[in-house]
Automatic annotation (TrEMBL):
<keyword id="KW-0677">Repeat</keyword>
<feature type="active site" description="For Fru-6P isomerization activity">
    <location>
        <position position="361"/>
    </location>
</feature>
<keyword id="KW-0808">Transferase</keyword>
<keyword id="KW-0032">Aminotransferase</keyword>
<protein>
    <recommendedName>
        <fullName>Glutamine--fructose-6-phosphate aminotransferase [isomerizing]</fullName>
        <ecNumber>2.6.1.16</ecNumber>
    </recommendedName>
</protein>
<comment type="function">
    <text>Catalyzes the first step in hexosamine metabolism, converting fructose-6P into glucosamine-6P using glutamine as a nitrogen source.</text>
</comment>
<feature type="domain" description="SIS">
    <location>
        <begin position="214"/>
        <end position="356"/>
    </location>
</feature>
<feature type="domain" description="SIS">
    <location>
        <begin position="42"/>
        <end position="181"/>
    </location>
</feature>
<comment type="subunit">
    <text>Homodimer.</text>
</comment>
<keyword id="KW-0315">Glutamine amidotransferase</keyword>
<keyword id="KW-0963">Cytoplasm</keyword>
């Protein structure tokens, strides 16, 4: 049942405010504005961890990459991260007192499961963030942390991703507290920001007709680049993955600072460049990369907030405005414009959005 939407993907994009709220409700106390971990072992493991190893595949891997920024910045917990198909075969060096975290919507992804088993065999405490509670990964992990996205039918992951972020953020705050790097006032501020995310997404989705129009523009391109920096760099990767898997347009995500080390050679007026740049501490840096693109004739679609759009100048080709919020939650908010843009590009191209060619919802072979 698509609840009146044309595709499951559209339905699942629109479900995000609700399922994010459900997931946050599990991990946050809304009155105290603190994180509650229902697992006593977890705080201890995170407090004592020498390092956190994170692994997953596809979109879940990009959620993990956002997690890396959060765990390192907030909890000063060193993070090692790799896609599961690499991690499991490269004989990673697991530390003593190591914690390993696996992220999976289905809980059945073969490489992620194999990476988890490898870490377990090497004495790591294993945690899994999983959407299907009775799945193999949820059962085999020492500690399973649920997401509450509900069934995700569209092959392109949307609500599972933002729910993974909604579990990762509280976990990073908990790790920060357990490791003595967070005072109560900061925890309250970050929890308030998280609890505000669903409302901001509802607000953003009111401009869908504009995104539909822009999706039609993106659909004309053969190649698209996505740029982001810091915690929003994984969003550039996720945006590119979403676009290629459902619209079949070639897309690449890059760290904005890497442009001048190669990819800028691709820029001409035929390659739209989607820049993800909230008006945060890294904004100026990303905007200077964006200006390098525009100086070479590149057509920029800037996804930012009111202040960021105002400061960007008139040369920008198109803008997408995301509600202003604490920079901590920007990965949650900026996921939605990249999903909707890819969705409408695919709709404009007339592809099979929910069942893209060559792809399966759950990859249970290696
Ligand atoms: O079920 P999982 O989260 O383990 O799946 C991981 C990837 O296969 C999945 O995220 C895939 O990349 C999606 N099609 C992305 O939209």
């Amino acid at each position: 049942d698509k609840a009146g939407h044309r595709h499951y993907m559209a339905k699942e994009i629109h479900e995000q405010p609700e399922v994010i709220a459900h997931t946050l409700a599990h991990y946050l106390d809304p009155d105290a504005r603190t994180v509650r971990l229902n697992e006593p072992r977890l705080a201890k493991a995170l407090a004592e961890a020498m390092r956190l190893t994170i692994s997953a595949c596809g979109t879940a891997y990009y959620a993990g990459l956002v997690g890396k920024y959060w765990f390192e910045q907030l909890a000063r917990l060193p993070v090692e991260i790799d896609v599961a198909s690499e991690l499991r075969y490269r004989q990673p060096v697991y530390p003593e007192n190591g914690v390993a975290l696996y992220i999976s919507q289905s809980g059945e992804t073969a490489d992620t499961l194999a990476a988890l088993r490898d870490a377990k065999a090497h004495g790591q405490v294993t945690i899994a963030i999983v959407n299907v509670p009775e799945s193999t990964i949820a059962r085999e992990a020492d500690i399973a942390l649920p997401t509450f996205a509900g069934p995700e039918i569209g092959v392109a992951s949307t609500k599972a991703f933002t729910c993974q972020l909604s579990a990762l953020a509280p976990l990073a705050i908990a790790a920060a507290r357990a490791r003595g790097h967070m005072d109560l006032a900061t925890e309250n501020k970050l929890c308030s920001a998280l609890l505000g995310a669903p409302r901001h997404i509802v607000e953003f989705l009111k401009q869908e007709s504009r995104i539909e129009h822009l999706g039609g523009e993106v659909a004309k391109a053969r190649d698209v680049l996505y740029l982001g920096r810091g915690v929003n760099y994984p969003l550039a990767l996720e945006g590119a993955l979403k676009l290629k898997e459902i619209s079949y347009i070639h897309a690449e995500g890059y760290a904005a600072g890497e442009m001048k080390h190669g990819p800028i050679a691709l820029i001409d007026e035929k390659v739209p460049v989607i820049v993800i740049a909230p008006h945060d501490a890294l904004y100026e840096k990303t905007v200077s990369n964006m200006q390098e693109v525009m100086a070479r004739g590149g057509k920029v679609i800037l996804i930012s907030d009111k202040a960021g759009i105002a400061a960007a100048g008139a040369q920008v080709w198109q803008t997408v405005e995301v509600p202003e919020a604490d920079p901590f939650i920007s990965p949650l908010l900026y996921a939605v414009p990249v999903q909707t843009l890819a969705y409408y590009a695919a709709v404009a191209k007339g592809t099979d959005v929910d069942q893209p060619r060559n792809l399966a919802k759950s990859v249970t072979v290696e």
